[in-house]
Amino acid sequence: MERTEAIVSWYLWVILGYLLVLAGFNFYRARQIKTQEDYMVAGRKLSLTTMVFTLVCTWIGSGTFIAGAEYAYYAGWSSIWMPAGAFLGIAIIYFVAARIRTFGQYTVGDILEVRYGPFARLFGAFALVVAFTTIVAYQFRAGGYILNVVTDGAVSLEVGQALAAAFVITFVAVGGMVAVAHTDLPNGIIIVLACCLALPFVVVAAGGWAGITSSLPAGHFDVFSADFGKYPALKGLAYFLSTLLLLMGVQSMYQKFYSANSARDAKRAVAIWIVGTIVVETVVIAIAVFAAAYNVQHATNWEPRTMVLNAARHMVPAPVGVLLLAAACAVVLSTGMNYLLSSSSNVIRDVYQRFVHRTETPDQAKMIALQKVFVVVLGAVAFCMIFIPTVLGLPISVLQYSYFAYTVYGVAVTPALFAALTWRRATKQGGLASIVGGFVTTVFLELVLPRVAPSVMQSAQGETGLAVFGADPWGIPSIYPAAIISIGLLIVVSLLTPPPTEAQLKPIFGEKTAKA
């Protein structure tokens, strides 16, 4: 018992020490911030190496380590469908990364307004803040899980998520993008290194391939798990589509492109980023699947969402385990910081500076201070999204939180945003219709319909006997009708309205392309 307590204490102190080192680094880097450009896009001076690891940290979050573990526990290897959408999304983004950096603004709202007008910017910002605040909220929850597992329950889930919120909000408020990007550099290295080192130990501890095939249900090896829903293939591909659409339009990634030294570095960073993302996402799923088998073999009763965390505690040597737990902390911090900074940038730039206090020469110190206030406010809202359900004893699934956030952003913003960058025929009316239509449809199907007509919500009980992936309207995931409406409105309304002028196209495509 004393040895176990000593190991737990060692884990905790190493992780807290790491967080304190990051905090000191954060405060040091914050001294470089002089202008809004420094705070929002790190002065547009990020090197290729920093760009690669900050992009890895932009995407790899608790959606990978917590939601991904929960997904893999119930669905097995077919859980790869969720991150696979990101693999394709990054490959597509490669072809427009340089164009995004050349445009050189601050938020996706800048692109939306150039192509679709000010209301598109405003409504797009609203959809983004809703989605990103939800993502920040479940980072806090994930932080609570990590500290709870690390301490064998000595730190409660409630206290853990409060500590995670305090660290994330403080880091972002103090350092902005300068802190985010440079904190992501060591975090990204730790994430990649820890996952690769831990996997062989986890495989051996679970008895290798023979161990998982004898311990896990046959459905864990299906292409589409029976636990997915009434229509397993539709549900699996819905997760694929939600991550694909989020990745292609996620603003925190666009901000990183704006922060790069050059358009060339932005494009090169994407090429390396896809490799890192494929490696980490695939390895984490493998760790979760083998941990699920170990859980069955030893009757440990680990919670599904803590598979990777418990693997770090019980299936690998202590030095590797603490590194993997540090990686889990790193993804919570990095993702929370990225999305909190991004949403606060929307509020300050797309709402306050654009519609409330318009001036050609804003007071830089005042704008930075005001954005820090918005960081704290949005961070508090995100915390309440987790704290209130916790107090009321309501069930909280990181997987369901992430799916809603991915879907609402992916169908409301991404189609119009990507069309603005790639389709010259997209019009102001088409883009605006797409944003509004996608957002309203998703909110109706995900939040309104389940409450006003619960009888239409259907789910499947697979081999686990549980409907773990949530119910869908008539068994059809909401992303399909929402995406069809969003993309359909974009195309149809654009083709029925006058094409954009050369002046409207020039900021995105350049003068030569606009005339083509």
Number of domains: 1
What is the CATH H-level superfamily?
A: Sodium/glucose cotransporter
Per CATH, which architecture? Up-down Bundle
Read across the widest sheet, the strand sequence of neighbours is 1-2
| Rg on CA atoms, Å | 22 Å
Q: What is the SS-derived class?
A: mainly alpha
Q: Tell me the overall shape.
A: globular
Query: What value does the average pLDDT take?
Result: 83
CATH top level assignment:
Mainly Alpha
Percent of residues in helices comes to over 70%
End-to-end separation in angstroms reads: 74 Å
**CATH level 3 topology:** Sodium/glucose cotransporter
Commentary on this structure:
With 516 residues, this protein is mainly α. The protein has one domain: Sodium/glucose cotransporter, CATH 1.20.1730.10. 78% of the residues lie in helices and 1% in strands. It has 21 helices and two strands. The protein has a two-stranded antiparallel sheet with strand order 1-2. Helix 4 packs across helix 13 (263-298), helix 5 runs antiparallel to helix 13 and helix 8 (118-150) crosses helix 16 (364-392). The N and C termini lie far apart (74 Å).
In a few lines, what is going on in this structure?
This protein is mainly alpha-helical and 516 residues long. It has one domain (2-515): Sodium/glucose cotransporter.
Throw out a few tags for this protein.
globular, Sodium/glucose cotransporter, 516 residues, mainly alpha
Layout of strands and helices, then pairs:
Elements lengths: L1 H29 L5 H6 L6 H12 L2 H14 L5 H13 L3 H7 L4 H9 L1 H33 L6 H49 L2 H8 L16 H18 L1 H9 L3 H36 L8 H8 L3 H39 L7 H29 L5 H15 L1 H9 L5 H25 L4 E2 L13 E2 L5 H18 L5 H14 L1
Antiparallel strand pairs: 1-2
